[in-house]
Amino acid sequence: MRTTIGYTIESIGYVIGAQGLVSFASQTFFGTEWGWLHKVVDLPSTAYLGVLAVGLALVVVGVKTRKVSERPEAV
Protein backbone atom coordinates (compact mmCIF):
# COMPACT_ATOMS: atom_id res chain seq x y z
CA MET A 1 0.00 0.00 0.00
CA ARG A 2 2.83 2.42 0.78
CA THR A 3 4.27 1.74 -2.64
CA THR A 4 1.05 2.87 -4.31
CA ILE A 5 0.80 5.95 -2.09
CA GLY A 6 4.47 6.75 -2.76
CA TYR A 7 4.01 6.57 -6.52
CA THR A 8 0.86 8.71 -6.32
CA ILE A 9 2.48 11.43 -4.22
CA GLU A 10 5.56 11.37 -6.42
CA SER A 11 3.49 11.69 -9.61
CA ILE A 12 1.51 14.62 -8.23
CA GLY A 13 4.79 16.23 -7.22
CA TYR A 14 6.17 15.94 -10.74
CA VAL A 15 3.08 17.61 -12.22
CA ILE A 16 3.05 20.45 -9.67
CA GLY A 17 6.80 21.00 -9.97
CA ALA A 18 6.66 21.06 -13.76
CA GLN A 19 3.82 23.58 -13.72
CA GLY A 20 5.74 25.78 -11.31
CA LEU A 21 8.86 25.65 -13.46
CA VAL A 22 7.01 26.29 -16.72
CA SER A 23 5.02 29.16 -15.24
CA PHE A 24 8.12 30.79 -13.75
CA ALA A 25 10.12 30.45 -16.96
CA SER A 26 7.33 31.72 -19.18
CA GLN A 27 6.64 34.82 -17.07
CA THR A 28 10.28 35.62 -16.41
CA PHE A 29 11.86 35.03 -19.80
CA PHE A 30 9.02 35.37 -22.31
CA GLY A 31 6.38 37.55 -20.64
CA THR A 32 3.61 35.10 -21.51
CA GLU A 33 1.57 32.47 -19.66
CA TRP A 34 2.22 28.79 -20.29
CA GLY A 35 0.75 25.73 -18.63
CA TRP A 36 -2.58 25.52 -16.81
CA LEU A 37 -1.64 26.87 -13.38
CA HIS A 38 -2.15 30.51 -14.38
CA LYS A 39 -5.77 29.66 -15.21
CA VAL A 40 -6.36 28.63 -11.59
CA VAL A 41 -4.36 31.29 -9.70
CA ASP A 42 -2.66 34.54 -10.62
CA LEU A 43 0.72 34.58 -8.88
CA PRO A 44 3.85 36.68 -9.33
CA SER A 45 6.68 34.88 -11.08
CA THR A 46 8.71 34.36 -7.90
CA ALA A 47 5.77 32.60 -6.22
CA TYR A 48 5.96 29.95 -8.92
CA LEU A 49 9.37 29.02 -7.53
CA GLY A 50 7.55 28.17 -4.31
CA VAL A 51 5.17 25.98 -6.31
CA LEU A 52 8.21 24.28 -7.81
CA ALA A 53 9.63 23.71 -4.30
CA VAL A 54 6.34 22.17 -3.14
CA GLY A 55 6.41 19.85 -6.13
CA LEU A 56 9.98 18.78 -5.39
CA ALA A 57 9.09 18.20 -1.74
CA LEU A 58 6.21 15.94 -2.78
CA VAL A 59 8.56 13.97 -5.03
CA VAL A 60 11.00 13.45 -2.14
CA VAL A 61 8.21 12.39 0.23
CA GLY A 62 6.84 9.99 -2.37
CA VAL A 63 10.23 8.38 -2.98
CA LYS A 64 10.88 8.00 0.77
CA THR A 65 7.41 6.53 1.34
CA ARG A 66 7.95 4.06 -1.45
CA LYS A 67 11.42 3.04 -0.24
CA VAL A 68 10.19 2.43 3.31
CA SER A 69 7.89 -0.28 2.00
CA GLU A 70 10.66 -1.87 -0.08
CA ARG A 71 12.93 -2.48 2.92
CA PRO A 72 12.83 -5.97 4.39
CA GLU A 73 11.32 -5.93 7.85
CA ALA A 74 13.38 -7.18 10.80
CA VAL A 75 12.04 -10.29 12.48
Word description of this protein:
The chain has 75 residues and is an all-alpha fold. It has one domain (2-69). It is 76% helix and 0% strand. The protein has helices at 2-30, 37-40, 47-70. Helix 1 (2-30) packs antiparallel against helix 3 (47-70). The longest helix has 29 residues, at 2-30. Keywords: Membrane, Transmembrane, Transmembrane helix.
Oligomer: single chain
Residue share in helix: over 70%
Query: Mean pLDDT score, rounded?
Result: 88
Largest sheet entry = none
Low-confidence stretches: none
Q: How many domains comprise the coordinates?
A: 1
What is the N-to-C order of secondary-structure elements (H for helix, E for strand)? Answer: HHH
Cα separation of the termini: 20 Å
Strand content: under 5%
- Number of extended strands: 0
| Anisotropy-based shape | elongated
The assigned structural class equals mainly alpha
User: What Rg do the Cα atoms give?
Assistant: 16 Å
Query: How many helices?
Result: 3
